[in-house]
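Standup, Tuesday
Yesterday: got the pipeline producing structure tokens again.
Today: sanity-check two examples.
Blockers: none.

Example 1:
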Amino acid sequence: MLKKLILIVALIWAGPALAGDKALTTADAKKFTASLPAATELGEGFKEKGVDLFNSTEPKLAADGTFKPYSTLLLEMKDAHPAEYKQVNAMAKSAKFSNAVEWASVGDRVMLAYIADKMPPNAGAMMSAMTPEMMAMMPPETRAKLETSKAVMSAVDNVPQADKDALEPVMADLDAALMAAGQSAGAFDPMSSMQQ
């Protein structure tokens, strides 16, 4: 059961759709999926240069409390590694996105819809079964991880059906792209460190 919970938390790290974001389209999901090999190659090049942005095994919430793994990583990169940020921006443009921010935003929505599709039906119930009393008995680090996971589960529970529908025609290609990225050590994929 613990392994299943850990797997669910790992999968959840892939990102939520935000209220007010443009609805996911199948065309955008296809563009994002098609960009993953180039993004993986870029991430491997960053790692070779000593810029390992993918070593965190912990999901991160954005400053506003939302769960956006691609957007959050991109924001960190923009400040700490501007040259690499420019490369991601160029990759995004070559994938027919207007810029890296749009690429990351679409990636967040794609991954959240993907997780919602792959998550076992009772996953949310397992997290919501954690009472405040149970949480209080846990070490602070474990409690913080579970609080983050609960926030992400809430986002997964609220994935618009339209996003799931838009992703459906792309699912097989996305599965293949994520599998390939997971087998690559430096993929520009927030899930890559979780899959190792």
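Example 2:
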Amino acid sequence: TNGNACEWERHRLTPVQDLASALYALKPAPEQLLFAGIFAPDNGLRFDPPQEVTPACSSPHGTGFAGYRYQQLIDASPNPASSAFNICDPQSFEQHIDRLGLTIAESLNRRCLRATPDRCEPGDPCPAGGTCAPRAQGGLAFCPAFTLQVELLRPLDAAPLPQATCTPEADHLRCILQEDTHYTIRWNDPRCDASRISVELTDPPQPQERVIIRYPTRVP
């Protein structure tokens, strides 16, 4: 296929904004999507037939053609972590790739509560005693009876996990994790579709480990 065709017939391509809207529709909040790309920067040139499309940058590793549609998609993203990297300058984007990898790793450490637990209005009395109150500044409000228990299922021969209560079961260890030591809770996380509550692990689980979050959806 002639690579010039995408530039010469760019009017036939799906508009970037239409593509962005379709992707954003997959999530309740557009900032839940992160876009990143490694391509040649836009030099402002556009080519019509029979002009030959020329590279926008070059380096000892090769040449790159302007990825201006990728750039438009990234520029339209409300997620500040969305990034573009110059393919002709590999040294400059190595640190950015590392940072992007950390961003992805952080998202893998995050666990959203799938079911929405009972909420209440701050200051209201709770059936089991106590008063409804936000769990954090700007966070959602719950009765005192609402609690989370985060568990990590680990191999029986796994090394001890400091400050966790681990009990051997049939083919694994069930470890009850401690808040602020092994995880933190975000009480109003827009990245979580339904519950808006997430648990972020301090360390990513290993492939053979499994995270379980136990909590009541109906608080007595």
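Quick observation on example 2: The two ends are 65 Å apart (CA to CA). The CA atoms of residues 3 and 206 lie 43 Å apart.
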